[in-house]
Amino acid sequence: MPRVPIENVRPGMVTSKPVTNLAGIVILNEGVELSEEIIQRLKNLGVLEINIKGVKKPEEPLEEQMAKLEERFQSFANEPFMEVLKRAVTTHIRNLYEGF
Amino acid sequence: MHNLLLISEDESKISLVGEILGDGYSLIAVGSIEEAINHIYDSFPDLIMLDLNVKDKKVITGLNTLKGDPIFYQLPILVIMDEKTHSFDWKNMRVDDYLKKRDIATDLKNRVDLCIARSKRTFEVNPLTRLPGNISITREIQRRLDTGEIFALAYLDIDNFKPYNDYYGFGRGDDVIRMTGRLIMNIVRSLEESGSFVGHIGGDDFVYIMSLEKIEPATKEIIDKFGEIIPAFYEEEDRQRGYIESVDRSGVRRKYSLMTLSIGIAHNRYRAFTHHGEMSGVASEMKRQAKKINVSAYLIDRRRK
Amino acid sequence: MRDSERKALRYKIENLSNLPTIPGVLKRIIRLIENPKTSLSDIGAFVTKDPALTTKILKMVNSPLYGFPGRISSVNQALVLLGLNVTKGLLLGVSVFELMQKAMTGLWEHSLACAICSRIIAQDMGMKDPEEVSCAGLLHDLGKVAIALEIPGIYQNYMEEAKEKRLPLYQIEDEHLSFTHAHAGGWVTRKWNFPKSLIDVIEFHHKPQLSKVAPDHSNVVHIADILVRARGLGFAGDYVVPPVNPKAWERLGLSEERVVNILSRMEEDMAESEGVFD
Prior knowledge:
The complex is a heterotrimer of chains A (about 100), B (about 300) and C (about 280). Chain A has about 100 residues and is of the alpha+beta class. Chain A has 3 helices and 4 strands, in the order βββαβαα. In chain A, a hairpin with a 5-residue loop joins strand 2 (about 20) and strand 3. In chain A, helix 2 (about 60-75) runs antiparallel to helix 3 (about 80-95). Chain B has 2 domains: about 1-120, Response regulator (Rossmann fold), CATH 3.40.50.2300; about 135-300, Reverse transcriptase/Diguanylate cyclase domain (Alpha-Beta Plaits, 2-Layer Sandwich). Chain B is built from 10 helices and 12 strands. Chain B has a 5-stranded parallel β-sheet with strand order 2-1-3-4-5, with helices on both faces. In chain B, strand 7 (about 195-200) and strand 8 (about 205-210) form a beta hairpin. In chain B, helix 7 runs antiparallel to helix 8 (about 210-230). The radius of gyration of chain B is 23 Å and the shape is globular. Chain C has 2 domains: about 20-90, no CATH class; about 100-270, Hypothetical protein af1432, CATH 1.10.3210. Chain C contains 16 helices and no strands. Chain C has helices at about 5-15, 25-35, 40-45, 50-60, 75-80, 85-90, 100-125, 130-140, 140-150, 150-165, 170-175, 180-190, 195-205, 215-230, 245-250, 255-270. Chain C starts with a helix and ends in a 6-residue tail after the last helix. The mean pLDDT of chain C is about 90. Chains in contact: A-C, B-C. The interface between A and C is medium-sized, with 31 and 30 residues.
């Protein structure tokens, strides 16, 4: 659950860990969907970073990831179940890039 | 052959010590507490020599921590002091002897031999668990009663230990005892760092003393963790079945489920005891009642008279 | 490599006393230890993410010094038996080898991902000790560290060869050394009195069909290892996905759908462990 600096937090994001203030007191629970007001309030309270649910968008471009995937499956592509496995991983990786 | 560990950064001291000791001693020199700890746990030296000039002040705390563990009660520590150093806080340094640098040539060998010999003289500690035995236990109970302290005393034993021992052999039985001793000690210590006491009467009988507030949480934790760990001491099939089949004292074949704990607790909040025997008696009585319950259980005396 | 060299190498591997970890982990551990409020469970949560620390704890609790060798495979149980002070002391003694940094970070990430994936699969299968399987997943490539410690330059060459020939590292190891990192891992953990089930998985994670003591665990870690490599997390020393053992795949009841599901859960859990490697 990546830590995101408060400037980059957008409405709709969901907290993955409780948010604490500088004194360590919990001011917001995990699993809360952040609205514009809540984000502003957190900024006012001096919160610097928030843990956000969900995986970060991968840094590498999708085509590069796919190319590497092809390469590593080359050697044993014809062995039992390797085709199925490759399809599953392809689906999974595409899912990672979706919604960003 | 004695295995010695020297903690020092001073090359000249290191070579001098090596020279003086000669054959019959295997000397390893390290410069930091971290390296020392690695060695200690790997090869369990007979003696540690500490050069008090070592810059890292964590060395003393490191060694004190080490000596706090019963396994290392008897590991002797000999400090080597320079001429300038004069007075020490011996109470807070768990060392056994000292030697001045100028006396290394004349006295090192004797001091080392004496320290090792002294450490080997057994003082009443259970050889299996290194926990204090009966004499220390009764002395501890009596001391607290004499000073008027309010405390709780727990007696613990392992149900179905004997059949386990018969079935799997003494080696495995000893392993269980060692594990139990460690478990009790760590849990008691972690909940009550100072003022608590853990003893091993013998066989599968243990004793622990804590404040009345902490004794029940500690007991529950001990029961929980024991239950988690004990299956690892059985073979797969027995573990799956949940019992071992063995012959009892009358020669009858019986099933014995996995070992559990029975714990009896006495305390002097509401009743006064003058003699340790009275208090132990109550704790044992509670334990006997707890034994009638098939699973791990503890009973605490709540009577007012 | 000559036979005498192989024997010497095996001897050195068997007599390793420590495994190195990476600087990021070491920094964190020191902070944890210096904080007087740190509890055993705080330490446990951290240790279970790092193979070197896990190994150290398990090695200690299973050593004859404590008197019950070969019994404990759970880090959390080990910590209760060792106690807070001993644990802190032990972790203070973890050392770092600068040479290994880059290779190690990749391997550590791979190992952690494998641990997480193993746990997920074990939980799905309803196995009664997913923590143990997870631990096996964390430590399965221990042998690579052992070999790399002893022959770093040569091992680097083997990795280059694996890359060129597009073969799994274990094949190159086998050709040159007549043993693989799986064997090496088995030697080390046997020497350190690890529980038999852990040793078994480490030894047979590439050939689970040969596993006798804990075949189910071996199947899980075998598959987890392959899934993690297929997904490309971390770096295990080579650039290919080795062939899946068909029996293992079938015994775990895998399908395209299940694999996608497992991978997405693993991805989430990995993101949560992020920052261990900073």
